[in-house]
Amino acid sequence: EAQVTQNPRYLITVTGKKLTVTCSQNMNHEYMSWYRQDPGLGLRQIYYSMNVEVTDKGDVPEGYKVSRKEKRNFPLILESPSPNQTSLYFCASSWWRSNEQFFGPGTRLTVL
Amino acid sequence: KNEVEQSPQNLTAQEGEFITINCSYSVGISALHWLQQHPGGGIVSLFMLSSGKKKHGRLIATINIQEKHSSLHITASHPRDSAVYICAAGGGADGLTFGKGTHLIIQP
User: Fold this and answer.
1) Contact B71, B16 (CB under 8 A)
2) Cα torsion B86, B89, B92, B94: sign
3) Which residues of chain A make contact with B39, given a CB cutoff of 8 A?
4) Is residue B31 classed exposed, middle or buried when 0-12, 13-18 and 19+ CB atoms within 10 A define those classes?
5) A103–B43: do the CB atoms touch at under 8 Å?
6) Nearest-CA distance from B76 to chain A in Å?
7) Angle CA(B1)–CA(B6)–CA(B7) in degrees, nearest 5?
8) Residue-wise pLDDT tens digits, B64-106
9) CB-CB neighbors (< 8 A) of B44 in chain A
């Protein structure tokens, strides 16, 4: 089954404790992206990757890191989480930036 | 950067009603996406269109490139259509710009 998986689905952590949210797709898509969704603000892009070892900043990259060492995986790293990073995070993949996006199930992160 | 506006923000209707959600964007695009997000969070792509009209079951999406406007219609609405509907505008090398979503509630 074609899918995008994210782990964990729910995470409560404390300020400053490094964490990684994993994202994996099995569709051989070139393009992968991370978004955060906040009430009243909609979906905003954090980082994206057009291919292996190619990553770039989206609209709200501050406080986040990513890597793309393999085509299928695109982890999101928060080196020192802060409460303003409490949000619902989605990973997505597609063939190209404007193509149909396939979304993961979401990760609800709370930073205390 | 593209700006995407959706209307209405909230819509409550009775089962069976014809529903229209509108989306306007400011910059020419290569594709317009409609997404659906049910309570519980998962996002599903409904349509991607660059011209004309597409239909899938009771859902119809239209786009007018000259007016930079798209509509999503739901015929014979049902409570299971209750969700947030999001439009997103994309232009070639640029990524997607998302609207803030329309919260739709269909009452039995």
Assistant:
1) no
2) negative
3) none
4) buried
5) yes
6) 26
7) 155
8) 999 999 999 999 999 999 999 999 998 656 678 899 999 999 9
9) 103
Dmax over CA atoms of chain B, in Å, equals 43
Chain A residues with CB-CB distance to B under 8 A? 33, 40-45, 48, 58, 88, 90, 92, 97-103, 105-106, 108
A94 min Cα distance to partner chain B (Å): 11
pLDDT tens track for A100-109: 899 999 999 9
Q: Read off the pLDDT of residues B16-75 as tens digits, 9 standing for 90 and up.
A: 999 999 999 988 788 899 999 998 778 999 999 999 999 999 999 999 999 999 999 999
**Residue A68 token pair:** 């793309």
**pLDDT for residue B92:** 57
Q: What letter does residue B41 receive in the DSSP assignment?
A: -
The Cα–Cα gap between B14 and B19 comes to 10
Task: Judge: B41–A108 Cβ closer than 8 Å, yes or no.
Answer: yes
Under a CB-based contact definition with an 8 Å cutoff, are residues A10 and A108 in contact? Answer: yes
CA distance A16 to A36: 19
Q: Does B94 touch chain A (CB under 8 A)?
A: yes
Strand runs labelled E in chain B: 4-7, 10-14, 19-25, 31-37, 43-49, 52-56, 59-64, 69-74, 83-90, 96-98, 102-107
